[in-house]
Description:
The complex is a heterodimer. Chain A is an alpha/beta fold. Chain A has a single domain (2-142), classed as Cytidine Deaminase, domain 2 (3-Layer(aba) Sandwich), CATH 3.40.140. Chain A has helices at 6-19, 61-73, 94-98, and strands at residues 2-4, 25-32, 37-45, 57-58, 77-86, 106-113, 116-126, 134-138, 140-142. In chain A, a hairpin with a 4-residue loop joins strand 2 and strand 3 (37-45). Chain B is an alpha+beta fold. Chain B has one domain: Ubiquitin-like (UB roll) (Roll). Chain B has two helices and six strands, in the order ββααββββ. In chain B, strands 2-1-5-3-4 form a five-stranded mixed β-sheet, with helices on one face. Strand 4 (57-58) of chain A pairs antiparallel with strand 6 (88-89) of chain B.
Amino acid sequence: xxxxxxxxxxxxxxxxxxxxxxxxxxxxxxxxxxxxxxxxxxxxxxxxxxxxxxxxxxxxxxxxxxxxxxxxxxxxxxxxxxxxxxxxxxxxxxxxxxxxxxxxxxxxxxxxxxxxxxxxxxxxxxxxxxxxxxxxxxxxxxx
Amino acid sequence: xxxxxxxxxxxxxxxxxxxxxxxxxxxxxxxxxxxxxxxxxxxxxxxxxxxxxxxxxxxxxxxxxxxxxxxxxxxxxxxxxxxxxxxxxxxx
Lengths: 143, 92
């Protein structure tokens, strides 16, 4: 389960609206509990896939290192990532799964149709090896 | 000593440690010390033929070691090594 405030939830959806028709991306920070990941802050990132931003995203590791360092100073850890699917369902694609490597983290996807955020879903990357990994539906609890 | 920052998904192989300190002169030595101390990490960082997995980015401070001297990159006391699995994807 992913626990997130209404304000952070709205913010990541709005990010997708702002970058439409391109995919947005960002990092979810917080803490991982026994039965839920709790988001306490989000960090917008740039999409380095300027060659194909309408259907691809990539976060610069340097940006992630900075975000991670700043999060560490606040006692936060990386608990997941978010991105948007312009005019496409909020479901993971084969590319999303192939490129997912942060086991135990949440991958949040928002469908943005004609510039409006519609559905937001979250998936946990389950497994511990590249073979057999899966993105599993998880509940989003907005608090 | 050099600090190696371990990403969340790999901390289960370091006894939940978020950082591991090693004494090393190069990236190769640092990663070798790391995997000697935490052998379960090895298969998640390296392929069967001993190469770093393509989605595993290794940064020395703010530089990707691929653009330095790769695993031969010199490391000194006080440096920070970050292991950062790629974050990417897309709708199709």
